[in-house]
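hi!! sorry for the late reply, been swamped w classes. u asked for the two structures so here they r. pasted raw, havent cleaned anything up. first the sequence of the first protein and right below it the tokens
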Amino acid sequence: MELDVVELSRLQFAMTAMYHFLFVPLTLGLSIIVAIMETVYVMTGRPIWRQMTKFWGTLFGINFVLGVATGITMEFQFGMNWSYYSHYVGDIFGAPLAIEGLMAFFLEATFVGLFFFGWDKLSRVQHLMVAWLVALGSNFSALWILIANGWMQNPVGAEFNPDTMRMEMTSFFDVLFNEVAQAKFVHTVSAGYVTAAVFVLGVSAWYLLKDRHVELARRSIAVAASFGLAAALSVVVLGDESGYSASHTQRMKLAAIEAMWETHDAPAPFTAVGLPDQEARETHYAVEIPWVMGLIGTRSLNHEIPGIDQLVEEAHEKVERGIVAFDALQTIREERDNAPAEVRATFEENSGDLGFAYLLMRYVEDPRDATPEQIAQAAEDTVPKVWPLFWAFRVMVGLGFAFIGVMAYFFYRSSFKGQTYPRWALWAAVIAIPTPWIAAEMGWFVAEFGRQPWTVDGVLPTALSASHLSVQDLLITLVGFMLFYSILFVVEMGLMLKYIRKGPFQDVEETNAWEERHEHRLRTHDGRGPFAPAGASAASALDGLPDATPAE
């Protein structure tokens, strides 16, 4: 197959982006879990919770550093590999990226340093505030990145300026509160929380299987199961919100995910499994669940969800209107301020479909010279490859429901069975560690691959967004990135495994001092019972765990 600059640019960005996202969800989730653990430490004063905070905080720090290193490269790629995209929409896309760097990343990076080096320099409450500011910065970083990405999926608050030949922002408020961006943010962040919960659960289960660091492991499982159950339920609920948003912002993506070739009578069924055949326009061996897709996509029983064939017909009309807009645009560019008012009016009337005319530039230099066959082909190009989307979505959803089951089981054992766990359950938790990353990568694949053939949906085709690079340039940098990222992956895994095997560092002096204070309080209790020392607060109930029992 002939190598193509656009496809190689896409491959390079996909590789770097998906590799970078190996670190992001764990950073998001661990930052919150670590802050929760330190909160319990400040409330109870028990050294075990400080030990837990430091241990999981160390793993967070390793992951954070590698995430920063891999994320910086991606920002350079916008200028190197996607220069026309950066020129065309930089006024909108660049704003949230700049805010992310100035507000969120600097906040996070500054307080990460205080978190690791401030234990002996800050009071307990001050250090707790630092932990929560690190968590806040991590989540703010995700917010601004997803606002930028959400705009690519649903380009609101901007319009094309025929005089500058660029997209320009008209409402920062609309960009900020873009429904796609907000739905993606809460869904992605919740997925990160699940990732961290499964990670903490799996590592803690491994400690119990090895009968090591039992007190830390049992408490960590309790935190991870409670936090993870809430997060897993949120992922499913918020994923439903993303489906509803796609039903009116990215209808072709939704139809492709469901392999819905024809428009069904409302409410549409959900295809649980099947074998999509894009050439034959049918799904073989489809197993359908009545009404479910209609309820998810429209939240009603009487609104239709258009099928792929209907959307292709609509795209055909948009291509034709785009040609009209392109013709008016050429007149405006040639005559500048002297362009007739009616020409500008014609352009304004059809400018929303200008991007569809650009789809023709794969086949003809001037869209006005396109043949009916080429127009039909451009309309057909708006359909992404169906079967990868169909199955990636179902893998993601299946894993999402599995996480609910896993977290509910461990929450039940932690809360009602004295924190005893069968060995098979502990091994299952260890084996499950990679699965949240698989679900997260599948989710991003659906989001980005499903947007094709657009870089900015309905505005700028991917084929026009790439820089004028040679195939040799792209091959060299692609191989370079793969080697560099492979080295970083080895470093990441080596450091994480090293510190997991090493286990937590125990502060013996603080532990002994706490035990002495605790014994003194027990000796001088005020008659409320040996387990209710004088001055004890309700916070002590957070650590009322029985003695360690690694497994039934």
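now the second protein. again sequence first, tokens right under
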Amino acid sequence: MDESHQMIMLKCAKSNIGPVRAFRIFKELVGSFEEVGCTSKDFKNLSYTMNSYADGVDAQLLLDRFLSKRETDECFKCEYLVDETHKVKSLFWSDAVAIQNYSLFGDAVSFNATYKTNRYDMIFAPFTGKDNHGGCVTFGAGLLTREDVNSYSWILKQFIECMGTAPAMIITDQDPALKIAVENVMPNTRHRFCMWHIMMKLAQKLPNSLQEDAELKSEIHFVVWSELDEPVDFERKWTEVLDQYELTDNTWLADMFSLRSYWIPAYFRDLSMSGLFRTTSLSESNNSFFRRYLNRNSNLAAFYIHFESAMEAQLHNYKQACIVDQTTVPQLKTHTPLEHHASLIYTRNVFMDIQTEIIEAIDRCRIKSMVTDDDEQWYSVDDRSNGVFKVVHIASEETITCSCKKFVRVGLICRHMFVVMPNVGMKLIPSKYIVHRWLKAASAEVISTSNMKSRNKSLMAEAFRCIGIAEGNDELADSLLTELKRWAEINSNGAQCLSPTSGKQKMFELFYGSKIPSVVTVHPPDAVKTKGSGKRLKSTYEVAAEKAKKPKRRCRKCCRLVRHDSRNCGKVVEEESDEE
């Protein structure tokens, strides 16, 4: 395998493309399998050798890379812990762009670990937020070998020290260890549980006689998910539903009620930006995004290379959204000055939400009554979708507030305020109600590409441009090939000849960005056993769902269409009869 094979393998490996696909890509570049010059097995062997290059030293390679980045970028932060045998136990890192993003969008953070991203099964734990386009943004990330209180406390401490301040709210799953860690490390941060994870358990926690009761589930969902109720309203409605269906003695529902301040929206209505997250779905989306770039067979050094590729893609997506805002004008659906003003200042996705509120204000809301007291005006706004809300305008202070508290929850004006604003002479959105995090002007620093990356980009672009020009023209193709061979001959004669082993060594060093360390002080961990790695007991709901998917067949013993056979007919026929 010559330099061309090694280069395509190197580029594909950095993009998490396996050797077989790399072989196919190279085949398309050269035209046919015969022209490749080697076999698919050769590509596999080279990939195996590349992965073996860092065996036993990948943790040291990663830390050396961290230290090198910290020398060239003073904003790059990294910390690690080792155990008594000098094996890496915990890692945390963040860079200048992530820190800048946190200063803009870090009012609420979602933290959710994911598995199977590296060969040691270390838990990958990114800190995720929502940017001004409504997309995922990563503030920092870590790798952990344990999911206990000490590990979570350590990574939360590193995150706060890196960012300089703790977020106002953090949302996680119901992990008991994580709950204790947040309480210890972030005492002033509101901790919120993911509602989706809790409500997914509802069906299996109900009595058997009520598990298929769609009306009960609908009523509980209506009470739980409402963001318009105050705590006292939620508690009253919750009690009414439980009394109606005789569920006051249900242990799980009682436990969830005791934890209501951790997950019910009614208890977060007065917390700024609490409406950004009600579930960890944004973290799930971000983790799914990372999985496109990460490989569960990667060592730690390769894992970070793939992580950087993912972050570059995330930044690229953000830039694309910014370009759309800069180069396009959203379509207005009303003739109100408020809508036009919103289209000029907000990002496209946020403006769509604002536009919906303005349309709903016109179509579904009306001022029912108004009471004036000195310079205060109290409006009663009838919202046909959700009821009646109180909007208060104080002229001397130029303030306007609504009892739905949407502006507090997400930093955007609600439809009820939009109904009143023209009535009090507001043709533009007041500056005090324009939250900077949602504006087009809110943007993080752009990573400056190095000269090497720019040169490589130009080199590859010119090479493919020349090939494209010569495509289909034999004379131009022969001329280009002659020139390339002449250039290679001149430069290969002047350069130091490398043996095949030295050539591979150079390729591996280019991939990992470092030579094999002469001194290894930190070793990779043993395979980690995560909380989700064991055989989890399935709930009755999951067992029933799996049974329902199996096709029925006729039992030769009972002659019925069932999901058993004659060998175990007597054992399960009664159970299946009960189910039917």
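hope this helps!! also noticed smth abt the second:
The chain has a mean pLDDT of 86.
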